[in-house]
Amino acid sequence: MLYEHFLFTRNKRRDFTAFVRPEKMSNRDVSTIASMIGYINHVGALTSDHPALYFFPLNHAAYLLRHYGSHRSHAGRTIGVLEGFVIEYEQVRNLSRLVASVITQQDQYLNIIHTLDDIETQDMVKSEVYQFDSVSTALPQPSKQDRETLNTFVEHEEKARLHLPFTEIGTNLLIQALLDPRLSSPLWFAYGVNSDVVKHMGNMGIDVNMVGYLSAEQPELRQRDNNQLLTTFHGYPAIAFQAAPQSAPSPQPITQLRDHRTSSTEKKQPLVNHDIAQRAKNISQSRPSVSSPEEAKDIEKHLFAEEVLTPRQMRKKYLEEAAKTAKQEQDEPTHHWLQNLIRWLFGSS
Amino acid sequence: MLKVTLFGGTGQGKTTYTLALLYQMAQGIDGFRIESADTDTATKYLNPWRDFVIARQWPAPTTGRREDNFKLYFQDQFITDFSWVDYQGGALNIPTDESDEAAQLHADVQESNAVIIVADAHVIATRPLIEAEMLTSSTYIFNILNRYKFSTATANEGITIALVLTKADAVPDEFKENEYYKLVQKTREVFRGVVEFISDRRAKTSSLRPWLYPSAMLPVSIVGEGNARITEIGQGYDLATMELVGAPAPENIHYPFLFAVGNELDRAALTLEQEEGELTERYKRLNQNVLNKILRGRTIKQVQEEQLQLAEKLQELEPKIRTVTSTANKKMKPLI
User: Fold this and answer.
1) Which of A48, A67, A334, B51 is the most buried if burial means most Cβ atoms within 10 Å?
2) Which has more pLDDT, B321 or A221?
3) Which of A13, A2, A129, A125 is nearest to A72 (CA)?
4) Sorting pLDDT into bands at 50, 70 and 90, what band is B323?
5) Which residue of A has its CA nearest to B67?
6) pLDDT value of position B168
7) Coil, helix or strand at residue A11
8) Strands, DSSP E only, in A180-238?
9) Is the per-residue pLDDT at B285 higher than 80?
10) Which residues make beta-bridge pairs with B74?
């Protein structure tokens, strides 16, 4: 199988970008995928050991990707990494077994970011084309319960979607479904997501066969078109995904500019207070920091600034001022002429 | 439908601002309320906001572009439809041939009636001027506005500009004094490209109509005073890291949005008034002699009807405009 690499993340200099992308991938394709994962708010809960997994078609290619929160952050928020393989669509028909094998060792195969020297200095590049021969890995065997679940899924495959919990049980079932020769191939999935992502994928024309929601506790079969529940597979323990505890914030801030915490007895000041008395108080309180009379004037202007005008109020004011100026200019010569006449009549110098 | 585009540099607080705004407006504030096109749209915004409030987890950064349609109401009276477009910050700093978002952002700004620019007040207050310019992307913002809204070809169309200064609770005290006097002053320096353009238009010598660019700014806080603390000051590309230490209590969030919508409605009314004026002139000309009345009676009637329709539209718009602008314009600070 021939494939290319895809890596979508951000570094300090550049916001979310496809740093590595296939030769034929368009900006529009990148944008489609970016807006898709834009609905993931839980990226910090996804780890490289247990990432969200995707296998979906987009234009002429199939994307086998993983999504997780890196250890890097920007403005206090975890930076996500979306990376993996892009395979030409013609090749994907009989790849289900290979996909199953890759996702059992996803941290090894889909780890594109580690093929780069340093993401912080990385520029956008086109991927090389790689050859993928085979994966030698022992694949898990289905349990009796798995077999029953898959039998029902096979029966309803055309109209139903398999909903999985985002747990070990779900991952195992995902792999078993990919290995089941009775199910269609390719078998598309979005695992470790939420319904907004799936809905958005649907709007983009991407229909998946299996989904894994973080909130799901047990595998279920639901109608594709209206999400109506067909079956819940009760043979599994009801466990929903639980994010590994993230490292607690340091009790002593590394650098604490100032502590904004206030005790309950302290009164919080509103951000911008337009009350006149308060303004006057503000001025008197802040006098020591005023460096010059000009600045004091500016501050006064700032505090007592007129209400921001609407376009029509602005136009009215502007036209009034223009009329006033015109009138003054018109009046001035008359005024001078009158003065001169009086001077001439009364002979004053 | 009004199109409001929200943009700004990366990490400036666009996503958190949007979530806070939609949360507040969904419940209703000062009598104003918004409704999304469907319940799922509201849920999409409310879920990350819930995680922010309960789990104290900052919302994930926006990737790509998001557009949703809403309706604005005042005390259950429909005001206007609007479409809200939100971008990942990087769309500003990438050439259009490298990113679809960048290309779409340019198109969106071009089509927008109003823009809400989001800038980090903490960056503005604490970084040297030139760094603040780069981190808030003020130069890039001016570049885009200049290209699509300020340059001579498009300048007569105008645009409403609301500048939102986020994280205002985190700025040093001296920047908070006198209703954020120092912050406002420095913001004017950081965004001097936009500020100077607006100032030039307001100058009496300008050939452009100055009222086409209603613009204002406001410091806002999503978490509320005292509810967040800085754990890392940030340097270079790294922005300050903040930790939520109390339940968020958003302050002033809705005013910039109402400013953008209200002033845009006012601009629409201005156009209607101008059209009405032109029709009145035309009517006068047509109606001034008997021969015209006989020969062009049908045209006169049409003009009269159009006049009437415009007057009705204006009458309908008037209370809506007053409602929105009287709330927002009082709170906003002039951009110049």
Assistant:
1) A67
2) A221
3) A13
4) confident
5) A35
6) 96
7) coil
8) 189-193, 210-213, 220-223, 229-232
9) no
10) B32, B77
Query: What one-character-per-residue DSSP string does A89-104 give?
Result: GGGGGG-HHHHHHHHH
State the number of CA atoms in the 13 A half-sphere of B322 facing the CB. 6
Residues of chain A predicted below pLDDT 50: 248-267, 273-277, 279-280, 283-287
CA distance A63 to A83: 9
pLDDT: which is higher, A127 or B276: A127
Strands (E), A152-209: 160-165, 189-193
Q: Using CB atoms within 10 Å of the CB of residue B91, give its burial: 0 to 12 exposed, 13 to 18 middle, 19+ buried.
A: buried
Q: How far apart are CA A137 and CA A106, in angstroms?
A: 12
pLDDT for B170-220, tens place per residue?
999 999 999 999 999 999 999 999 999 888 776 656 556 777 889 999 999
Distance (Å, whole) CA B264 – CA B271? 11
Residue A299 to residue B181, Cβ atoms within 8 A: yes
Q: How does pLDDT run across A73-98, given as a tens digit for each residue? A: 888 889 999 999 999 988 887 788 88
> In this complex, do B40 and A196 lie within 8 Å of one another by their Cβ atoms?
yes
Reduce the DSSP state of residue B24 to 3 states and report it: helix
Other CB atoms closer than 10 Å to residue A252's CB: what's the count?
7
The whole-number pLDDT of residue A213 equals 95
Contact residues for A202 (Cβ-Cβ < 8 A; gap 6+): none
Q: What is the DSSP string of B213-270?
A: --EEEEE-BSS-TTSEEEEE---TTPPPEEEE-S----BSTHHHHHHHHHHHHHHHHH
Amino acid occupying residue B109: V
* The two structure tokens encoding residue A268: 């919080």
Asked if B237 has any chain A CB less than 8 Å from its own CB, the reply is yes
Q: Tell me, what amino acid is at B321?
A: I
Q: Which of A17, A77, A257 faces B90 most closely, judged by CB atoms?
A: A17
Q: What is the pLDDT of residue A262?
A: 40
Residue of A199, A254, A260 to mutate, testing the B interface (most B Cβ within 10 Å of its Cβ): A260
Tokens 């602005």, residue located? A314
A255 contacts in chain B (CB < 8 Å): 230-233
Rounded Cα gap, residues B113 and B5, in angstroms: 8
Which residues in chain A are contacts of B252 at CB distance < 8 A? 271-272
Alpha carbon of B293: minimum distance to chain A alpha carbons (Å): 34
Nearest Cβ partner for A35 among B65, B249, B262: B65
H/E segment holding residue B21 = helix B14-27
Task: State the Cα–Cα distance between residues B185 and A295, nearest whole angstrom.
Answer: 11
Q: Answer whether A95's CB lies under 8 Å from A1's CB.
A: yes
Q: Is the pLDDT of residue B142 over 80?
A: yes
Collapsed DSSP state (helix, strand, coil) of residue B164: strand
β-strands A77-88, A2-9: how paired? Answer: antiparallel
Q: Mean pLDDT, to the nearest integer, of B34-57?
A: 89
Contacts of A51 (CB under 8 A, 6+ apart): A66, A67, A68, A106, A192
